[in-house]
């Protein structure tokens, strides 16, 4: 506690503003628990950048932690591009509390360091920021967002000149630059001449490229026949999804008006996360009223999407992230095949915790399949590392997808367009997305996944998560639901142990705190602490054959029972 008091006392110095000093003193005097939580560590970069609770302290999102980050990045940019006459940074922000204010603070720090800033004048989705970094020849991009985290959170994602998020070794180098600074070294007083407000010019070119990448010749008549219900869940996608769909010719678009106004309090949902069925409940009710074929919702910064469609009983059913990813990948592969664009020099990408069906599906088209760690920054890195290959598309289980490489991050806007294009084409053939998914299961095998995320908040929670991973490594599973474990991949040590062949090999993927078990019958269990939330996640995948569509419900029930038994054995 002595170290924490020392760190907190520094925040009482006159460099910090009066409100910050007062809040810090209140924590010291009256709230030792929150004082510890606010100062016990420096807020770190994770899977999707930096996210945290807003407030005073080194472990919180505030003017000073973001200012110090930005100063470190400004210093790093100058070292990385010493011969560039003008270094440029694009900055966007979402609907969260203080996002606009924090974006202006970040802009001022860059400008104070002589760096040109292209600052969006209003909130915009994260994919537009990724796109703008490349389109406007910026060396870096920042978006102020905490994605789908609760209202008390905000965050800071950093992009590099290729439009992808930071990956090693740059992230470690930038962190070292940040950690070498003191707060009083941050230049907060910006040069207004170096800050340029942008918006409509970026929207226009992005919408055009989104339509070019997300449509495949479905007739105007069939697009008009698709009945769509959409909710932005109080987030940024309201600025781009409607104009993209309307310009592409989807005229039957019903918007959940109660959730259309951007609002960082997210007043109509428990969590603004399209992974949660409850988040789409208002949209599903509107869809029932309007007779919609498809329901779509996005998270606050407009990069994740949730989709619900009609099932055989005409009820609206939510697809999970793996199912959406498989369908979109199938559609892209089919269209590339129809257009004779598959030359043997293309690839699809996903992540190590996503459904194994992605590999099976992709390789059935004789297309290369590549896998990376969780997070789209790794898919962006695969694109960057393999310029000899054309990227078709890819995604991950957590409701994200990327269509082509014009955006180097998950992109709900273009993915929604692609989903509607696919749904319109299937509807014209008398089919739904679920019908098509079942046919894919018959052809490639039935796969079912389930995710359990255990929330462990604060200092004690972090210790509990750390101990859980230590225990799993000390006492590795040898059997799962009566099936022998034949392979264990430990991404922390980069070692994979094959017990059938009694061999080990190195994993050619950057290190990460992830353990994955594979059984003799194809079941897969992964354990991974979240990189952006106080959670430890367990991913379970099981598979079997499906001989005909009519037996789908039986197979689904069998898989669910198997998954529940596995979770029971894991104690989660």
What can you see in these coordinates?
- Helices cover 39% and strands 22% of the residues.
- A hairpin with a 4-residue loop joins strand 19 and strand 20.
- The mean pLDDT is 95.
Helicity, as a percent range: 25-40%
- Chain-averaged pLDDT: 95
Distance between the ends: 33 Å
Counting DSSP E segments of at least 2 residues, the number of strands comes to 23
Structural class estimated from helices and strands? alpha/beta
Keywords: Coiled coil, Isomerase, Magnesium, Metal-binding, Phosphoprotein
InterPro entries: A-D-PHexomutase_a/b/a-I, A-D-PHexomutase_a/b/a-I/II/III, A-D-PHexomutase_a/b/a-II, A-D-PHexomutase_a/b/a-III, A-D-PHexomutase_C_sf, A-D-PHexomutase_CS, Alpha-D-phosphohexomutase_SF
Pfam families: PGM_PMM_I, PGM_PMM_II, PGM_PMM_III
Domain Alpha-D-phosphohexomutase alpha/beta/alpha: 44-183, 218-308, 320-440
Short description:
This protein is α/β, with parallel strands linked by helices and 572 residues long.
Defining key terms:
572 residues, alpha/beta, Alpha-D-Glucose-1,6-Bisphosphate, Chain A, domain 3, eight-stranded antiparallel sheet, 18 helices
How do the helices and strands line up, and which of them pair or pack?
Blueprint (H helix, E strand, L loop, with lengths): L1 H9 L7 H13 L1 H8 L10 E4 L9 H18 L7 E6 L5 H14 L3 E5 L5 H10 L4 E5 L8 E8 L9 H10 L15 E4 L1 H15 L5 H6 L2 E4 L9 H8 L4 E3 L25 H10 L3 E5 L6 E6 L5 E3 L2 H18 L7 E6 L5 H7 L4 E5 L3 H10 L4 E7 L3 E4 L8 H17 L4 H12 L1 E10 L2 H17 L4 E2 L2 E8 L4 E4 L4 E4 L8 E5 L4 E6 L5 E10 L7 H19 L2
Parallel strand pairs: 2-3, 2-4, 3-6, 7-8, 7-9, 12-13, 12-14
Antiparallel strand pairs: 1-5, 4-5, 9-10, 10-11, 14-15, 16-23, 17-18, 18-19, 18-21, 19-20, 21-22, 22-23
Helix pairs in contact: 2-3, 4-5, 4-7, 8-10, 8-15, 10-15, 12-13
